[in-house]
Amino acid sequence: MRSLVFVLSLVAAAAGCDAKQTGTSLGTGTSTNTSTNTSTGTGTTTVPAGWTQWKVADGGNDHWYRIDRNKTDWLTAEANAEGIAAHLVTITSDAEEQFIINTYLTGDDLLNVFWMGCTDQAVEDTFVWINGEPFDYTHWKSGEPNGWDGEGEDYCCINWNAVRGPIGEWNDALVAGTTGYDNGANDGPYASIIESEQRPTQ
Ligand SMILES: [Ca+2]
Ligand SMILES: [Ca+2]
């Protein structure tokens, strides 16, 4: 009789032990799922390659910038930028101009022309930024804007004819850029420098 009680005790102890292990195992599974969800959430906030933020801590505005290498006319360039919640770059201070020069007009792009976000297409000789910012800072090349070729030069580019002068100066150009000037050193169409106020997602 005593031995039967002992055996029953062992069986009960074994059953209890199994139940405990099952419970522990379930708890571990739940913990793993929570961790996976957190990791996925972090991944969706990663900024795509190519964008650079001009941080407030560095004297900037926290906007994001990058080059769009697609060479096209100004209107298509702006439409492409708007398609990813950005716009052609608006340069509204000397500090922003210097950031653009130092970040993008270097290396292989030292003498390349890029579209930027101003135009006098609506009212000749009245240039505006495409996002409505006040147009009270300019960095035109000497003699520009000149509306050359009748009233056809309505679209702004940066670093125009850098082969003959300082890096980063602006020009008003035809919608597809200039052609043949200075042995074709500035021939369009151009790539673009674009800017986004929001954290880019594409
Ligand atoms: Ca800007
Ligand atoms: Ca011009």
Describe what you observe in this structure.
By secondary structure, the chain is an alpha+beta fold. 31% of the residues lie in helices and 18% in strands. Strands 1, 2, 3, 4, 5, 6, 7 and 8 form an 8-stranded mixed sheet that branches. The site of one calcium ion has 5 residues, from loops.
The strand count comes to 8
- Poorly predicted runs: 1-43
Helix content: 25-40%
Q: Tell me the span between the first and last alpha carbons.
A: 78 Å
Q: Please indicate the percent range of residues in DSSP E strands (runs of 2 or more).
A: 15-25%
Secondary structure category: alpha+beta
The major pleated sheet works out as: 8 strands, mixed
- How large is the radius of gyration? 30 Å
| Elements, N to C (H/E) | HEEHEHEEEEE
Please tell me the overall pLDDT.
Answer: 84
Quick one: overall form? globular
> Bound compounds, please?
calcium ion
Output the number of helix runs. Answer: 3
